[in-house]
Each structure stands twice: as C-alpha cells, then as structure tokens.
Amino acid sequence: MPRKSFKRVLLKLSGESLAGDQGYGIDPSTINTIAAEIKEVVGDGVELALVIGGGNIFRGLAASSKGMDRASADYMGMLATVINSLAMQDALEKIGVSTRVQSAIAMQEVAEPYIRRKAVRHLEKGRVVIFGAGTGNPYFTTDTAASLRAMEINAQVILKGTKVDGVYTADPKKDPTATRYNELSYIEVLQKGLQVMDATATSLCMDNNLPIIVFDLTTPGNIKRVISGEAIGTIVQG
Ligand code: UDP
Prior knowledge:
Blueprint (H helix, E strand, L loop, with lengths): L7 E6 L14 H16 L3 E6 L7 H6 L4 H25 L4 E5 L8 E2 L2 H9 L3 E5 L9 H11 L4 E6 L4 E2 L11 E2 L1 E2 L1 H7 L6 H9 L4 E5 L5 H6 L6 E3 L2
Helix pairs in contact: 1-3, 5-7, 6-7
C-alpha cells in the first residue's frame, strides 16, 4: 500500500545514534549530518519535533542492575537526554534552524518547561521542538516519551530512526534467513516480542492509533524519504 507524506512528525532518535562509530558520547560529525537532514525537511515546511534518548551517556536500568537505586539511576538517564537535546539544539542553530528545547524536568536556566500549547505554537512557527528529560518519570523510556508527546502535539506519525532498515523476523546479524517486515500490526509486535519500541510505548500507540515507522537513519536522505511517503523501513499500524 502506498504511504502518504507527513506534515507534522515526531522523530525519535536513540542516544546511540548520536555516538557514531565510537559507541558512546556525542560524535560531532554524526550529529551535524542528522541536523543537516532535519534542516532540509523543515525547509520544506514539515513541522518536526524530536525526542532523543540517553543511552549513549547513561541508562537507568543498566546502572540499577549493578546496584544503584532505580529511580535515581533513571533520573540520571533523563538528564542524559537533556545533554543530547542541547547538543542537537546547538547543531541545528549553527546551521540556521530555529529550535526550542522543552524539558519534562524543570531547569529553567537550560530549557523551557514542557508546555504542550507552547510546543504546538513553536511547531506552527517552523521551529524544531526538542523534548528533553523523557516523560519526567522514572521507570519509563524515551520511546514512551516519544509516543506520549507525539499524541499530545497531534503528530501524524512517530519516525524511529535506527541503525537497521526496519524490523526483522530475527536478528539479521545472527540469522541469515531473517527477513524484513514491510508492515506490522501493533498486536503482532507485542505478541512476537519484536524490538520496535518497548511494550508500554507500543500499546500507547495502539490505543491511540498512532503509526510508527522504523527506518535506517544511517542512510543519507532517509529522513526526507520517510517523511515524503517513500515506503522504506517497517510501518507499524492497525
Ligand atoms: N528515562 C526515564 N524516564 C523516561 C525516559 C527516560 O527514566 O521517561 C531514563 C531511563 O533510565 C533510560 C534513560 O533515561 O534508560 C535513557 O533513555 P532511553 O534508554 O530510552 O534512551 P535510548 O535507548 O533511546 O538511547
């Protein structure tokens, strides 16, 4: 089935996608490449909001498995997402893209507080809105934050940029017979335990009929392709 193009989208990037080949932290050339692609679509009139994970800096679950209090570790993870958001803001503004960072945890010297109506207004004015600090709650992920914010701002889709070109029947690195799904239903994702988003995020999208497209962020031009309706990656809907 042909896809439609989108006017308002929420782009979810994992923290790792900013790390480039080094696997941790922020790689300047990688973040600049992503920023340039975002500039192009915003220039075409697309309203784009961003949620960036924190896994390139800190993951709450990993730290709590080594003995740290889970809630404290999760707050550290949320702060890591703010670091990534500020880095992306800097990369975008340097090339002339107007942005706002809104944080789910109050830190007024650093970012605006999350205010839904303001976020929508920024988007209408052509600014990229970067949502930092996840949902503001421990025990959640930035995938869930992406789903929640996408719904709140009436985004038409969540675009999940990853290092693989969609969702596979098995891990293609381990199983050469693995094939890519073009389309999946939410229920299939949940029942098969496919690694699209975590179950909380997937069921939130299912309950509110918000499509998710998983696509390869590492191929240049893919952000524009997926927004313009080209059938790349895997779409999860219905
Ligand atoms: N986190 C959280 N609540 C949220 C979003 C994130 O507690 O609403 C914490 C959690 O510890 C998580 C970390 O922030 O491990 C980084 O986010 P995530 O793992 O989703 O990042 P990604 O895997 O996308 O880089």
